[in-house]
Design brief:
The chain is an alpha+beta fold and 195 residues long. The chain is built from five helices and twelve strands.
Length: 195
C-alpha cells in the first residue's frame, strides 16, 4: 500500500512540474483546431486568429472584440492603448480564404502560419526558480528568444490565479538560456505548480 501511494505522489508531482514549450504558431494551431475553409472559419477560430494578429502586428494592442460576420469575412475590432480604445481599422479574417489583414499591417496567410513545422528549441539550462507549492492550475507564458538565446518579453497568456506561482513561473522562464539562432522566435510554455 505504501509503495502504491508513493508512486501516486511521484506521478502527481511529475505531472505538476511538467513543462511544455512550443512555438507561438503551434500554440495558435492548437487553439484554432481543424480549419475547414470550404465550410468556413468559425467565430471562435476567427477570434483566436485576430488576437494572435493583434498581439504581433498592432502596437499597443490589448485585446479584441468578438468577431462580427460580414459576408465572406469576419470583422474584428482591435482595442489599443491603456484605455482599450477601439481602433478605427478592423482586422479582417477571410472565412473561406484564410487571409488575415488589418488596414495598417501586413496581410498573412493563416494556413501557412499554422502549418509551420519549425520545432520549438529547448532551453540548455533547467532554469532557476521553481513554482511554489500550490493547488493552482497551470501558468501559460509567451516569450521571445533572441538570436543570442536570451529570453525577453515574457508575458502571461493565462494565470494560475496564484500570484506566487505566477511570479516564480515567470522567473523560471526568464532564467532559461537557449541555443544561438539566426532569428528571434516566439515561444509559449505551460508550467504547473505542485499541489
Amino acid at each position: 500500500m505504501k509503495t502504491a501511494l508513493g508512486a501516486l505522489m511521484l506521478s502527481v508531482c511529475t505531472f505538476a512540474n511538467a513543462q511544455e514549450i512550443k512555438t507561438a504558431q503551434r500554440d495558435l494551431a492548437d487553439q484554432v483546431g481543424l480549419i475547414n475553409l470550404k465550410a468556413g472559419m468559425t467565430e471562435k477560430q476567427a477570434g483566436a486568429v485576430a488576437l494572435f494578429y493583434c498581439e504581433r502586428y498592432i502596437g499597443g494592442c490589448g485585446t479584441t472584440d468578438a468577431p462580427v460576420s460580414q459576408g465572406s469575412h469576419w470583422q474584428i475590432t482591435p482595442r489599443t492603448g491603456i484605455d482599450g480604445s477601439p481602433d478605427k481599422d478592423k482586422i479582417l479574417v477571410g472565412k473561406h480564404s484564410g487571409k488575415v489583414s488589418w488596414g495598417k499591417g501586413p496581410a498573412i496567410d493563416l494556413l501557412s502560419l499554422v502549418s509551420s513545422k519549425e520545432p520549438a528549441p529547448a532551453p540548455v539550462n533547467k532554469g532557476g526558480a521553481k513554482p511554489v507549492l500550490t493547488s493552482a492550475s497551470a501558468v501559460k507564458i509567451e516569450f521571445t528568444v533572441s538570436p543570442a538565446g536570451k529570453v525577453s518579453n515574457a508575458r502571461f497568456k493565462r494565470s494560475s490565479k496564484d500570484i506566487k506561482c505566477d511570479v516564480q513561473a515567470r522567473a523560471r522562464v526568464e532564467s532559461w538560456k537557449f541555443p544561438p539562432r539566426k532569428t528571434p522566435i516566439q515561444l509559449v510554455t505551460t508550467l504547473g505548480c505542485n499541489r
